[in-house]
Design goal:
- One of its GO terms (molecular function) is tryptophan-tRNA ligase activity.
- By secondary structure, the protein is α/β, with parallel strands linked by helices.
- It is 50% helix and 12% strand.
- The chain folds into 2 domains: 10-289, 3-Layer(aba) Sandwich (Rossmann fold), CATH 3.40.50; 300-396, Tyrosyl-Transfer RNA Synthetase (Orthogonal Bundle), CATH 1.10.240.
- The strands form 3 sheets. The protein has a 7-stranded mixed beta sheet, with helices on both faces. Strands 1-2 form a two-stranded antiparallel sheet.
- Helix 7 (142-148) packs across helix 8 (153-168) and helix 10 packs across helix 12.
- The radius of gyration is 21 Å and the shape is globular.
Length: 419
């Protein structure tokens, strides 16, 4: 993996300096299509915050979140998995003063089944929906995957419906959730298309190349796609939800991985010129591949991923065979020196999925001291993931095409209840 990363970084270093989306620095590459790092500890998020100009989530924001909402921050917030933000204080102001806002997130359907890494923004978004009790729109960018992948239109659309089943199985409130396929919705909603055009007119070809690193050989569909991902940030792109009149002033909060930030930096730059509020964002770290934090889990590499369709045996085998260990090379060395939780994939996965803070801290102490062996921490993780995936598979069985259509039909979504 290190040799492959070196080759990628060296190749990118030959590109123009005006290609910031592709060239991060000598040690890592982070853009909407690729995440790799030379460091065993993974991506340097402090560098990303500085480069992207976002703000790290601090204890003051967590305290305010709890005070305003009455809810203890989600464990992914407390542990710094969601670590960076733009204008979340503004969204809390809206909640505090009972002004409307909505949530927006998305999924690019490129495989029949989602993997654990895909779950992270959706699990967190579901919690936000429950806490704030506001509408949520979920964009399925089947058009993006058609443009970037070797997919036929029909296949990209089929994957949208398969992935929508995975998302619905997480338990989103059907009365407050609208899931839409770009291929299906845009053609039926002139308001959405008009917002796309407005964004396209505000952003030059040179700007898009600079932000996203597009080259002369990229198809024109890729050049225009960022405007499609920007449009759901504006509430009047959804007249079926928010109504026809003067609804463009309703702001949104976008939970997403930080590699999606370039889309919304562009959107935040354009929004004031269109008379719309800037979208607020809350960024997550990347869910590491089984082989280590040098790259994120990818649907294109089955050995790097645990899919929601994996059997109990497959989950156990993948963790035991592929999950990178921060433990010693022998039992004796591990007992003496302990394990390195910063690079151990099993421990890192537990920070995402083990909600019990005290138990997680005990595991950290025991593994770091050498009391807990690599096989034992992997066994702990296997049990948690097997339960998570089995529960999801059981729920997904109940998600019929009729259920999917109930989420994907444009309709008014329930207003926030008085607290």
């Amino acid at each position: 993996m290190t040799d492959q990363l070196d080759a990628k970084v060296n190749d990118l270093s030959l590109k123009s300096e005006a290609d910031p989306a592709a060239v991060e620095d000598d040690d890592q590459i982070v853009n909407p299509w690729e995440v790799v790092s030379k460091s065993e500890k993974g991506v340097d998020y402090d560098k990303l915050i500085k480069r992207f100009g976002s703000t790290r989530i601090d204890q003051a924001l967590l305290d305010r979140f709890e005070k305003v909402t009455g809810h203890k921050p989600h464990h992914m917030l407390r542990r710094g998995i969601f670590f960076s933000q733009r204008d979340v204080h503004f969204i809390l102001n809206c909640y505090e003063t009972k002004k409307p806002f909505f949530l927006y997130t998305g999924r690019g359907p490129s495989s029949d089944a989602m993997h654990l890494g895909h779950l992270i923004p959706f699990l967190f978004t579901k919690w936000l929906q429950e806490v704030f009790d506001v509408p949520l729109v979920i964009q399925m960018t089947d058009d993006e995957k058609f443009l970037w992948k070797d997919l036929k239109v029909e296949e990209a659309l089929r994957l949208t419906y398969e992935n929508a089943k995975d998302i619905i199985a997480l338990g989103f409130d059907v009365d407050k959730t609208f899931i839409f396929s770009d291929m299906e919705y845009i053609g039926s909603c002139p308001a959405f298309y008009r917002n796309m055009l407005k964004v396209q007119k505000c952003v030059t070809f040179n700007q898009v190349k600079g932000i996203f690193g597009f080259g002369d050989s990229d198809c024109i569909g890729k050049i225009s796609f960022p405007a499609i991902q920007a449009a759901p940030s504006f509430s009047n792109s959804f007249p079926g939800i928010f109504g026809e009149k003067d609804t463009g002033k309703i702001p949104c909060l976008i939970p997403c991985a930080i590699d999606q930030d370039p889309y919304f930096r562009m959107t935040r730059d354009v929004a004031p010129r269109l008379g719309y509020p800037k979208p607020a964002l809350i960024h997550s770290t990347f869910f590491p591949a089984l082989q280590g934090a040098q790259s994120k889990m990818s649907a294109s590499d089955p050995t790097s991923s645990i899919f929601l369709t994996d059997t109990q045996k497959q989950i156990k085998t993948k963790i035991n065979k592929y999950a990178f260990s921060g433990g010693g090379t022998s039992v004796e060395e591990h007992r003496e020196k302990g394990g390195n939780c910063e690079v151990d994939v099993s421990y890192q996965y537990l920070t995402f999925f083990l909600e019990d803070d005290e138990k997680l801290e005990q595991i950290r102490q025991d593994y770091s001291s050498g009391k807990l062996l690599t096989g034992e921490i992997k066994k702990e993780l296997v049990t948690i993931l097997q339960q998570l995936v089995a529960k999801h598979q059981e729920r997904r069985k109940d998600v019929t095409l009729e259920v999917v259509k109930s989420y994907m039909t444009p309709r008014p979504l329930n207003e926030k209840k008085d607290k």
